[in-house]
Every structure is written in C-alpha cells, then in structure tokens.
Amino acid sequence: MPSEKYTFRPSFQKTTFAEIVTAVAENNFESCAVAGGLDNPQSKGLTSSGDKAKLVAVLKSSFEFCEKAFSKLHDNQLGEVVFFTREMMAERAGTLFALIGDWADSYRLAAVYFQLNGLEPPN
Fold first, then answer.
1. Which of 32, 42, 64, 94 could staple 69 via S-S, CB 3.0–4.6 A?
2. Is the pLDDT of residue 19 over 80?
3. How many other C-beta atoms are found inside a 10 Å radius of the C-beta of residue 12?
4. So where are the chain's domains?
C-alpha cells in the first residue's frame, strides 16, 4: 500500500489501513507472547500514526517476535492451558489457531482496501 493510503478509510465509520496494520502487530505481540510463554515486548500498546515506515517496521518486528515464540514451542506443550486474562483461557494450540484465523481475516480486510484503491493485493 502506498504511504499516502495508510490514512485511507472507506467511510467515516471504518478503520484506516494504518489501524489494520497496527491491530495485526498488536495481536501478534499479544497472542505470540501467550502461546510462547514470553513477555509481551509491546505491552504498552501501539499507535496507528499512519507513518508507513514506522508501521511496517513494527509489523515486521511483531512477526519476528512470533517466530521467536514459535521456536520455543514443542508438541507436548500444545495442550497446556494458557491465560490471556483471569477470565479468558485457552489451550496453547487454540491460541495459535485463533492467531492464524486473525491473520486470514486481516488479510481479507486489507485486500479490500487495496482493491478500493485500484491496487492488486499482494499474494
């Protein structure tokens, strides 16, 4: 997505493209920390400034963090119960499946933003 389109929103009520990118990064940090039993390095929250260079760097960092978290996992840990909050818990494998679903949903949404701007979404 071109830099000038990071503030694009299809209508007043919809999120900007930058907010989509920010949400993916936040979810990566949170979910991968839980799944991998690591501390979330971005626990203070991210801002969707619309600055493409900063957002792409944070997004890349979030996926690198997920790689680190995944490298620490073993098959025998996937059934362990992990907690997001005191009220919400899931098995480690469930956390990973939810994360994969979130990636698919975010890609579909981003693809629509690309198409609304006359651009071909990346493969």
1. 32
2. yes
3. 5
4. 3-116
Is residue 45 predicted with pLDDT exceeding 70?
A: no
Q: Is 58 exposed, middle or buried (0-12, 13-18, 19+ CB in 10 A)?
A: buried
SS3 of 121, please?
coil
List all residues 6 or more positions away from 100 whose beta carbon is below 8 Å from its beta carbon.
none
Structure tokens at 104: 């698919």
In degrees and rounded to multiples of 5, residue 53 shows phi and psi of: -60, -45
Is 3.90.1150.10 the CATH number for 3-116? no
| pTM reported for the whole predicted model | 0.88
Long-range contacts of range 81-90, CB-CB < 8 Å, 24 or more positions apart? Answer: 82/34, 82/35, 82/37, 83/34, 84/30, 84/34
